[in-house]
Amino acid sequence: MTEVPKDRSAPPVISVMLVVPDAGAATTWYKAALGATELWNLGGVVGLEIAGAPFFLHAVNPDNPAETEPGRAGVTSARVEMFTDDPDDIIERAVAAGATAGPDIEDRRAPWGTHRQGGFTDPFGHIWSVGDRSPLDPAPKDRRPAVKDGPPAVKDRP
To answer: If I label 85, which of 105, 131, 133, 141 is the partner at 20 to 30 A Cα–Cα?
Structure first.
């Protein structure tokens, strides 16, 4: 058995794979609406990124009914969260390109201060929440929400 070296210097990357009815059409839309760039394309599976944040598209596979697109399922069970310097612009571009407007963008009170956020549903049924980067900034301990019976708090970033 071959051991795989564990490089602990790079943090893990969490991404999403969105199931879509047509990977080509979805790729075209994400590029035009959100400024995505293509990492690679295997036809029915496409790797994209937005400003270095990777995500993936997978065309519906009729042989795998456990994975379907929201339009066919009639529901969506996940929400894509995007944090950016200009959430207003991202939402405006998405809606102009055919997305359905979601919650209006507004300033919301949060334990760390003000968080600007709104959203849209893309033409493939995926719900996107788009906000500023404030939730990604480390908050002073006295402003963090208390967690009861949950996972331990995340350690402060350097």
So the answer is: 141
Q: Do the Cβ atoms of 116 and 122 come closer than 8 Å?
A: no
Count of positions (residues) in the chain:
158
Q: Report which of 119, 135, 118 is spatially closest to residue 127, judged by C-alpha positions.
A: 119
| Crossing angle (nearest 10°) for helices 23-34 and 87-96 | 130
Question: Does the global pTM surpass 0.85?
Answer: no
**3-38 pLDDT tens trace:** 655 666 777 777 899 999 999 999 999 999 999 999
Q: Residue 128 forms beta bridges with which residues?
A: 80, 120
Query: Which residues, at least 6 apart from 82, have a Cβ–Cβ distance to it below 8 Å?
Result: 50, 53, 90, 128, 129, 130, 131
d(CA 35, CA 53): 12
* One-letter amino acid of 35: G
- Nearest Cα to 102, choosing from 127, 75, 134? 127
Cα distance between residue 150 and residue 47, in whole Å: 34
